[in-house]
Specification:
This is RNA-binding protein. This protein is an alpha+beta fold and 96 residues long. Helix content is 59%, strand content 18%. The chain has one domain: GMP Synthetase, Chain A, domain 3, CATH 3.30.300. It has a 3-stranded mixed sheet.
Length: 96
């Protein structure tokens, strides 16, 4: 039996986002924004750009030494990022 009680706004928005096929684009924007937040000032100073392709986050780093350091710790960065996002969105991080 249908009810006439209102649905929570968050549920309605999620349904609209999914119906419009915007979930992936919104997730990509959230990943890049969250990366900038968790990376901190020192890493952000070396970051030229960041973007998503599929489930991979690409981060262009201007310093070869920083790139190597970040690459060696990419699994930990990915875990921190997904924890901050609240779900598994990033499958891999590639530092270039």
């Amino acid at each position: 039996m249908p009810t006439d009680s209102p649905e929570p706004l968050g549920d309605v928005l999620k349904e609209v986002i999914d119906r419009l096929g915007m979930r992936e684009k919104i997730d990509e924007a959230r990943v890049v924004e969250t990366w900038a937040t968790i990376a901190g000032d020192r890493v952000n100073a070396m970051t030229e750009s960041a973007w998503m392709k599929g489930d991979t986050l690409f981060v262009k780093i201007s310093s070869a030494a920083w790139r190597q350091e970040l690459h060696m710790n990419r699994r930990a960065w990915r875990e921190r990022l997904n924890d901050a996002l609240g779900r598994e969105i990033v499958g891999e991080i590639m530092f270039r």
